[in-house]
Each structure stands twice: as structure tokens, then as C-alpha cells.
């Protein structure tokens, strides 16, 4: 079960605050290796701009997507100061959190998956902020930690998105991942009892599916939960995550490369 609307809105706010701590002490021109071509300044402009875009969408219950160029084109010749970036993050997060709380999870509006509710944007931007905080934190050479419940929900959400049938229409090359016997087991090794942080990604059918389960699979990867999350999101190499891999490593690598997070 995913985190509820209020918890996800709080995650969005809390993760932005933690990112602000990084931004205030980092050089905005620092390259972000996990987002090639970006600096920490560009990453902040992207995230803060995306939060403001989503805030406007949720507040107006938009039936179609607003223009998103404001947070897509974020690379500039001149970097902003940490203080300027901090203001952008504060404003973007506050606006989106306020819009989400006022709307509630079921307010009808456009989503990238078709007509849906405001809850989609609470979850998507909570975890967008989780992952981009990791990008900036790792780029700044600082330690990255994450609440286990949040990490599990972030993995659940990404597996849900990657398994949507329309993803095969948008990215037909992903059909090459499907085939008999193709299953991937993700196993977090350090989670509290009852959190059930194990997943099986099933690529044996016409579309990918996933389930929370402990099952023998074609390949299994075991790692601490936060490291496992960063591996799945393409933010950490398997070799750098303290991970153990059993079985078909080529399948694991193909699956990780074939489902990138932007």
C-alpha cells in the first residue's frame, strides 16, 4: 500500500528542506554525474520549476498539461547563487504542498497517464524530490540517507510506472526485455521487520508486471534498501552499492538500462 496523500505531501516538503541544506553549502556549478550535462544549479531549477508547474496544475484542476518548458530548459551560461536557488526551492515546494493539501487526493485533473486525481502529483513529486536530492547530495560528496518507508514507496511507484502498458507504446525498444524465464528479484537486506522490501519484476508476459515477493528468479540483487533504490533509479552502479548479484547479470543490466529515470 502506498503512502497516503498527507504523508506524501510531507515527504515532498521534508525532502526539499534536506535538499536546501545541500544547496546552501554547495557550489551551484558543481557537475551532477547522475544527470549528465547538469550542474547542481540546473538540477534545482528543474526541480523547483517542476514543483511550481505541478502547483499551478493542481490549483487550477487543469484538464490538459500546462507548458513545461520552464523546467525543461534549465542549463544556463551563468549560474545563480545558492541563496537564489534556495528561494526557488522554498517557493516551489510551498506552492505545491499548499495546492495538494487544498485539493486532496481525488481532485480531478490531467495527469500524464490520462484523467486522474491530484494524488498522482503528490506521489510523483515526493519521489521526484527524493531522487533529485540524491543526485545533488552525491554530487556534493555528502552522505545520503532515506526513511525506509519512503524508499519502499519510491521503489513501488517506479515499478508501477515502468510496468504500465503505455510505456511499451512510448518506448517500443523495451519489448526486447520481455521473454520466457526473465524475472528479476530485488531484495533489500536492512529493512525493519514487516516492511517486506522484496520485489519480483516479471518480464515473461506481453507486458512487464511486478509484485512484492520472495521468489527464485533468473537474477537476484541484494543490497541495503537505499542503495537498492539508487541502483534501480540509475543513480548508483551495482558495484558501488554493496550489492550481491546472483544469476543472469546480463538480464539485470539490460533491465536497469532499459528503464531509466529522467
**Unreliable residue runs:** none
How many domains? The number is: 2
Q: What percentage of the residues does DSSP assign to strands (E)?
A: 5-15%
Topology-level CATH name of the largest domain: Four Helix Bundle (Hemerythrin (Met), subunit A)
Tell me, what is the CATH class of the largest domain?
A: Mainly Alpha
Percent in helix: 40-55%
Number of helices: 9
Number of strands: 7
End-to-end separation in angstroms reads 25 Å
Sketch the topology as an H/E string, one letter per element: HHHHEEHHHEEEEHEH
The CATH architecture designation of the largest domain is: Up-down Bundle
Rg, Å, rounded: 18 Å
Tell me the overall shape.
globular
Question: How would you characterize the overall build of this protein?
Answer:
It is a single chain. With 262 residues, the protein is an alpha+beta fold. The protein has two domains: 5-144, dinb family like domain (Four Helix Bundle (Hemerythrin (Met), subunit A), Up-down Bundle); 164-258, SCP2 sterol-binding domain (Nonspecific Lipid-transfer Protein, Chain A, 2-Layer Sandwich). The protein is 49% helix and 12% strand. The protein contains nine helices and seven strands; from the N terminus they run ααααββαααββββαβα. It has a five-stranded mixed β-sheet with strand order 5-4-3-6-7. Helix 2 (40-60) runs parallel beside helix 4 and helix 5 (119-139) crosses helix 6 (148-162). The longest helix is centred in the middle third of the chain and has 22 residues, at 82-103. The radius of gyration is 18 Å and the shape is globular. It starts with a helix and ends with a helix.
Amino acid at each position: 500500500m502506498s503512502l497516503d496523500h498527507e504523508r506524501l505531501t510531507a515527504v515532498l516538503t521534508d525532502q526539499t528542506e534536506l535538499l536546501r541544506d545541500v544547496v546552501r553549502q554547495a557550489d551551484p556549478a558543481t557537475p551532477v554525474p547522475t544527470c549528465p550535462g547538469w550542474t547542481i544549479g540546473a538540477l534545482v531549477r528543474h526541480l523547483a520549476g517542476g514543483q511550481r508547474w505541478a502547483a499551478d496544475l493542481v490549483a487550477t484542476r487543469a484538464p490538459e498539461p500546462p507548458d513545461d518548458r520552464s523546467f525543461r530548459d534549465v542549463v544556463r551560461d551563468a549560474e545563480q547563487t545558492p541563496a537564489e536557488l534556495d528561494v526557488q526551492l522554498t517557493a516551489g515546494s510551498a506552492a505545491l504542498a499548499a495546492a495538494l493539501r487544498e485539493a486532496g487526493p481525488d481532485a480531478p485533473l490531467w495527469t500524464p497517464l490520462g484523467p486522474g486525481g491530484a494524488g498522482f502529483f503528490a506521489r510523483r513529486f515526493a519521489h521526484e524530490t527524493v531522487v533529485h536530492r540524491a543526485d545533488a547530495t552525491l554530487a556534493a560528496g555528502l552522505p545520503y540517507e532515506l526513511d525506509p518507508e519512503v524508499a519502499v514507496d519510491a521503489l513501488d511507484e517506479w515499478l508501477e510506472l515502468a510496468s504500465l502498458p503505455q510505456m511499451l507504446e512510448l518506448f517500443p525498444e523495451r519489448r526486447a526485455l520481455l521473454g520466457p524465464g526473465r524475472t528479476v528479484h530485488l531484495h533489500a537486506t536492512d529493512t525493519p521487520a514487516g516492511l517486506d522490501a522484496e520485489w519480483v519484476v516479471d518480464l515473461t508476459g506481453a507486458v512487464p508486471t511486478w509484485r512484492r515477493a520472495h521468489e527464485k528468479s533468473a537474477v537476484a540483487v541484494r543490497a541495503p534498501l537505499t542503495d537498492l533504490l539508487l541502483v534501480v533509479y540509475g543513480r548508483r552502479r551495482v558495484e558501488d552499492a554493496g550489492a550481491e548479484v546472483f544469476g543472469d547479470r546480463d538480464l539485470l543490466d539490460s533491465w536497469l538500462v532499459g528503464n531509466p529515470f529522467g
